[in-house]
Design goal:
alpha/beta, Carbamate kinase, Archaeosine Trna-guanine Transglycosylase, Chain: A, domain 4, 2 domains, eight-stranded mixed sheet, five-stranded mixed sheet, globular
Length: about 375
């Protein structure tokens, strides 16, 4: 699952790190806080901050802690019920973090994000400025999704993808996801005794995506599938990512010392420009186009290419000109994302046509390209 090996020793030089902890890492199965684990995490992060590293913590656990504080037998199934638990749990969790980090001389700040903060480019930029100002003041931002106000269609949905989004916003050097699993396995280790831990991934293939199983524990919301999505987002943005077990002692420090802990997803060498990063991972995907083999091959080449109507075989969803859409091959694998110059209705009519035929078919032609290469992000 890897080509040229990455030298993990270079991870000791990273400066800006996003660390995500899952619910199962900081709470027990009954939703009560695991103080010994939270203390260990805070001590390790504080020590890294003292070394001059810039740390952002993305923390799950608000709903689980809220369920415990409210004395509920199980996690609510309704959205208002979950939001009520999150509202209670978020305050309890932040109070815990603030108290424990203060023991190690660190100031923390609460940052709550929703999908709206990433969909709107101005808010995306403002989020970045806020994070950078906090880091400049040596503050450790503690991030969660704003579950209390987020409605379903505007939810980021899980903190794995939220952490990758945050890593992209702040231009992090490394993303570490601490979970209830040791990393990516060749098969589900709970079902297959022959499953082996994969130490390094340089290309997230369809096979790797297919091997991602369901959620590993009943406490969290994200299984390996969401972690692979996060890895695609991070590595496409030029950010290395490691999945490791939250139960491992000093996992973060050992990763930064170059030890082979968990699974390392090696970033692509290119660093997406800030605008392109928003385009690919901040903006909402409004629909998709399916391209033929020739177009798919051209898109995958270094530097990519503009997408013309001739290479499009199908259009899915309803979208307007200027919306961000996904580009997939015939097998359904996502190749790229970009800004469409035409609406879905227009594309449905001109798909497969030559550029010279667009005006005759539509009665107008604003662009030769459906997606210009400058507005296209290769994944």
């Amino acid at each position: 699952m890897s080509g040229l090996s990455f030298d993990r020793a270079t991870l000791k030089d990273v400066k800006r790190i996003v660390i995500k902890v899952g619910s199962s890492t900081i709470t027990y199965g009954n939703g009560k806080r695991n103080f010994s684990r939270i203390d260990r995490l805070a001590r390790e992060i504080a020590d890294l901050a003292n070394q001059g590293k810039e740390i952002i913590l993305v923390s799950s656990g608000a709903v689980a802690v809220g369920v415990d504080r409210l004395g509920l037998a199980a996690k609510p199934k309704t959205i208002p019920g979950k939001q009520a638990a999150a509202a209670v749990g978020q305050g309890v969790l932040m109070h815990t973090y603030e108290k424990i980090f203060a023991e190690y001389g660190q100031i923390v700040a609460q940052v709550l994000l929703t999908r709206v903060d990433s969909v709107d480019r101005h808010r995306y930029t403002n989020s970045r400025n806020t994070f950078l100002a906090l880091l400049e003041h040596k503050v450790i931002p503690i991030v969660n999704e704003n579950d209390v106000v987020a409605i379903d269609e505007l939810k980021i949905g899980d903190n794995d993808n939220l952490s990758a989004l945050v890593a992209g916003i702040v231009d992090a050097d490394l993303l570490i996801i601490l979970s209830d699993v040791d990393g990516l396995y060749t098969a589900n280790p709970q079902k297959d005794p022959n499953a082996k831990l994969v130490h390094e991934v340089t290309d997230i293939t369809p096979e790797i995506e297919a091997s991602a199983g369901d959620a590993g524990s009943k406490v969290g919301t994200g299984g390996m599938f969401t972690k692979i999505q996060a890895a695609k987002m991070a590595t496409s943005s030029g950010i290395n990512m490691v999945i490791a077990s939250g139960e491992e002692k000093d996992a973060i420090s050992r990763i930064l010392e170059g030890e082979e802990v968990g699974t390392l997803f090696v970033s692509r060498e290119n660093r997406l420009q800030f605008r392109k990063r928003w385009l690919a991972f901040g903006a909402r995907i409004a629909g998709k186009i399916v391209v033929d083999d020739g177009c798919a091959k051209a898109v995958r080449k270094a530097g990519g290419c503009s997408i013309l109507p001739a290479g499009i075989t199908a259009v899915e969803g309803e979208f307007e000109a200027g919306n961000t859409i996904s580009v997939v091959n015939k097998a359904g694998r996502e190749l790229a994302r970009g800004l469409s110059n035409y609406s879905s209705e227009e594309l449905d009519v001109i798909k497969g046509a030559k550029t010279s035929e667009i005006e005759n078919i539509l009665g107008h032609k604003h662009f030769d390209e459906v997606i210009h290469r400058d507005d296209l992000v290769i994944l």
